[in-house]
Fold this sequence. Notes:
Layout (H helix, E strand, L loop, with lengths): L1 H29 L5 H13 L1 H24 L17 H14 L4 H11 L7
Helix pairs in contact: 1-2, 1-3, 2-3, 4-5
Amino acid sequence: MWDIFLFMLMAFYVVAYIFVVILVIVxxxxxxxxxxxxxALWIVFLVFVPMLTALxxxxxxxxxxxxRAARRxxxxxxxxxxxRPSASADPSGDIAKAKELLDAGVITRGEFDALKxxxxxxxxxx
Length: 126
């Protein structure tokens, strides 16, 4: 009975450790701000002192790992970027020109809506 329990516990620890090492390696290669030499040094330490290196890496760079993972999974919506269009100097004139183009069949209704939104200073996402 105890043999099975100990075997399952050790198997869990081994799988958890392999998972952590894979996460560390993936994070190392996806980190754009860490220089290549430091990445190589972390890998060398992971090979020769694996348990201690994984523990130190998670402690030292854990907050950055979480931030990088969050950026990868939620890169941000287009409306969350820094670009904020300004209203046109003559919104009514721009809308009138766009309406003329729409009536002439040069642009579609969607393009007219985009031009109108842009003239009013709004972001338009289609």
